[in-house]
Amino acid sequence: MTANEFKAEYLPHKLKLYRVAFCLLKHSEDAEDAVQETYVKLWGIKDSLHAIRNSEAYCTTLVKNISLDMLRTRQRKGYSISIDEAVIPSKDSPAEQQMQAKYQLKVMMRWLETLPSVQRNVFVCRHQQGLSIKEIAQQLSLTEVNVKVILSRLRKELKEELNRYE
Q1: CB 109 within 8 A of CB 161
Q2: Are the C-beta atoms of 134 and 126 separated by less than 8 Å?
Q3: pLDDT of residue 166
Q4: How far apart are CA 92 and CA 101, in angstroms?
Q5: 8-39 burial, b for 16+ CB within 10 Å, e for fewer?
Q6: Termini Cα distance of the chain
Q7: CA of 89: how far to CAs of 56, 140, 164, in Å?
Q8: Distance from C-alpha of 56 to C-alpha of 142, rounded to nearest angstrom
Q9: Which of 58, 56, 70 is nearest to 24 (CA)?
Q10: How far apart are CA 15 and CA 86, in angstroms?
Protein backbone atom coordinates (compact mmCIF):
# COMPACT_ATOMS: atom_id res chain seq x y z
CA MET A 1 0.00 0.00 0.00
CA THR A 2 1.39 3.41 -0.95
CA ALA A 3 1.44 6.40 1.36
CA ASN A 4 -1.32 8.11 -0.63
CA GLU A 5 -3.54 5.02 -0.50
CA PHE A 6 -2.91 4.76 3.24
CA LYS A 7 -3.83 8.41 3.79
CA ALA A 8 -6.98 8.11 1.69
CA GLU A 9 -8.16 4.93 3.39
CA TYR A 10 -7.14 5.37 7.04
CA LEU A 11 -6.72 9.06 7.90
CA PRO A 12 -10.44 9.89 7.54
CA HIS A 13 -11.06 7.77 10.67
CA LYS A 14 -8.85 9.94 12.87
CA LEU A 15 -11.62 11.89 14.60
CA LYS A 16 -13.62 8.76 15.43
CA LEU A 17 -10.49 7.05 16.75
CA TYR A 18 -9.76 10.05 18.95
CA ARG A 19 -13.30 10.00 20.36
CA VAL A 20 -13.06 6.29 21.16
CA ALA A 21 -9.67 6.74 22.85
CA PHE A 22 -10.81 9.81 24.76
CA CYS A 23 -13.92 8.05 26.06
CA LEU A 24 -11.73 5.31 27.49
CA LEU A 25 -8.72 7.32 28.67
CA LYS A 26 -10.35 10.60 29.78
CA HIS A 27 -7.23 12.64 28.91
CA SER A 28 -6.74 14.36 25.57
CA GLU A 29 -2.96 13.79 25.52
CA ASP A 30 -3.39 10.07 26.18
CA ALA A 31 -6.09 9.86 23.51
CA GLU A 32 -3.78 11.58 21.01
CA ASP A 33 -1.02 9.14 21.95
CA ALA A 34 -3.35 6.16 21.42
CA VAL A 35 -4.43 7.42 18.00
CA GLN A 36 -0.85 8.08 17.00
CA GLU A 37 0.22 4.63 18.15
CA THR A 38 -2.67 3.18 16.12
CA TYR A 39 -1.43 4.86 12.96
CA VAL A 40 2.15 3.78 13.66
CA LYS A 41 1.00 0.17 14.01
CA LEU A 42 -1.13 0.42 10.87
CA TRP A 43 1.78 1.83 8.91
CA GLY A 44 3.97 -1.00 10.17
CA ILE A 45 1.62 -3.54 8.57
CA LYS A 46 0.73 -1.46 5.52
CA ASP A 47 1.61 -4.25 3.11
CA SER A 48 -1.07 -6.54 4.58
CA LEU A 49 -3.80 -3.88 4.99
CA HIS A 50 -5.27 -4.63 1.57
CA ALA A 51 -6.87 -7.75 3.10
CA ILE A 52 -8.88 -5.64 5.59
CA ARG A 53 -12.49 -5.31 4.42
CA ASN A 54 -13.68 -2.67 6.88
CA SER A 55 -10.87 -0.24 7.67
CA GLU A 56 -12.98 1.82 10.08
CA ALA A 57 -13.91 -1.20 12.21
CA TYR A 58 -10.32 -2.45 12.17
CA CYS A 59 -8.95 0.95 13.24
CA THR A 60 -11.58 1.33 15.95
CA THR A 61 -10.78 -2.08 17.39
CA LEU A 62 -7.07 -1.34 17.27
CA VAL A 63 -7.36 2.04 19.04
CA LYS A 64 -9.70 0.50 21.62
CA ASN A 65 -7.18 -2.25 22.39
CA ILE A 66 -4.30 0.23 22.58
CA SER A 67 -6.34 2.44 24.93
CA LEU A 68 -7.20 -0.52 27.13
CA ASP A 69 -3.53 -1.48 27.25
CA MET A 70 -2.70 2.06 28.34
CA LEU A 71 -5.33 1.84 31.09
CA ARG A 72 -3.94 -1.50 32.28
CA THR A 73 -0.45 -0.05 32.40
CA ARG A 74 -1.75 2.95 34.32
CA GLN A 75 -3.53 0.68 36.84
CA ARG A 76 -0.52 -1.61 37.19
CA LYS A 77 1.66 1.35 38.10
CA GLY A 78 -1.09 2.58 40.38
CA TYR A 79 -0.66 6.17 39.37
CA SER A 80 -1.25 8.41 36.43
CA ILE A 81 -0.40 12.04 35.97
CA SER A 82 -0.92 14.33 33.06
CA ILE A 83 1.57 17.08 32.38
CA ASP A 84 -1.07 19.67 33.19
CA GLU A 85 -1.55 18.12 36.64
CA ALA A 86 2.11 18.58 37.55
CA VAL A 87 1.58 22.06 38.96
CA ILE A 88 1.69 23.47 42.44
CA PRO A 89 -1.77 23.20 44.03
CA SER A 90 -3.42 26.13 45.76
CA LYS A 91 -2.41 27.13 49.29
CA ASP A 92 -5.71 25.66 50.50
CA SER A 93 -4.55 22.18 49.50
CA PRO A 94 -3.17 19.83 52.17
CA ALA A 95 0.54 20.29 52.92
CA GLU A 96 1.36 16.75 51.76
CA GLN A 97 -0.25 17.41 48.38
CA GLN A 98 1.66 20.67 48.03
CA MET A 99 4.95 18.94 48.83
CA GLN A 100 4.26 16.14 46.35
CA ALA A 101 3.39 18.63 43.61
CA LYS A 102 6.54 20.66 44.27
CA TYR A 103 8.61 17.49 44.11
CA GLN A 104 6.96 16.44 40.83
CA LEU A 105 7.65 19.88 39.40
CA LYS A 106 11.31 19.63 40.46
CA VAL A 107 11.61 16.19 38.83
CA MET A 108 9.98 17.53 35.67
CA MET A 109 12.32 20.52 35.48
CA ARG A 110 15.39 18.29 35.95
CA TRP A 111 14.08 15.97 33.24
CA LEU A 112 13.46 18.93 30.93
CA GLU A 113 17.09 20.02 31.29
CA THR A 114 18.30 16.63 30.04
CA LEU A 115 16.38 16.84 26.75
CA PRO A 116 17.98 17.74 23.42
CA SER A 117 17.24 21.35 22.46
CA VAL A 118 14.65 20.57 19.76
CA GLN A 119 12.61 18.36 22.10
CA ARG A 120 12.90 20.87 24.94
CA ASN A 121 11.78 23.69 22.64
CA VAL A 122 8.77 21.68 21.42
CA PHE A 123 7.78 20.89 25.01
CA VAL A 124 8.17 24.48 26.20
CA CYS A 125 6.28 25.89 23.21
CA ARG A 126 3.37 23.53 23.81
CA HIS A 127 3.09 23.36 27.59
CA GLN A 128 4.47 26.67 28.78
CA GLN A 129 3.64 28.99 25.89
CA GLY A 130 0.45 27.17 24.86
CA LEU A 131 1.23 27.19 21.14
CA SER A 132 -0.68 24.98 18.73
CA ILE A 133 0.96 22.12 16.84
CA LYS A 134 0.88 24.21 13.68
CA GLU A 135 2.48 27.23 15.38
CA ILE A 136 5.23 25.07 16.88
CA ALA A 137 5.94 23.47 13.52
CA GLN A 138 6.24 26.86 11.84
CA GLN A 139 8.33 28.39 14.61
CA LEU A 140 10.80 25.48 14.80
CA SER A 141 10.80 24.59 11.08
CA LEU A 142 9.42 21.11 11.70
CA THR A 143 6.49 19.27 10.18
CA GLU A 144 3.27 19.04 12.18
CA VAL A 145 3.59 15.26 12.21
CA ASN A 146 7.10 15.54 13.62
CA VAL A 147 5.88 17.88 16.39
CA LYS A 148 3.08 15.44 17.29
CA VAL A 149 5.50 12.51 17.43
CA ILE A 150 7.94 14.47 19.61
CA LEU A 151 5.16 15.54 22.00
CA SER A 152 3.78 12.03 22.23
CA ARG A 153 7.17 10.57 23.06
CA LEU A 154 7.92 13.34 25.54
CA ARG A 155 4.63 12.82 27.39
CA LYS A 156 5.34 9.12 27.65
CA GLU A 157 8.91 9.76 28.83
CA LEU A 158 7.77 12.32 31.41
CA LYS A 159 5.12 10.00 32.83
CA GLU A 160 7.72 7.26 33.18
CA GLU A 161 10.13 9.69 34.84
CA LEU A 162 7.51 10.87 37.33
CA ASN A 163 6.43 7.31 38.07
CA ARG A 164 10.06 6.30 38.66
CA TYR A 165 10.27 8.77 41.56
CA GLU A 166 7.04 7.61 43.18
Answers
A1: no
A2: no
A3: 62
A4: 13
A5: ebbeebeeebbebbbebbebebbbbbbbbbbb
A6: 44
A7: 42, 32, 21
A8: 30
A9: 70
A10: 28
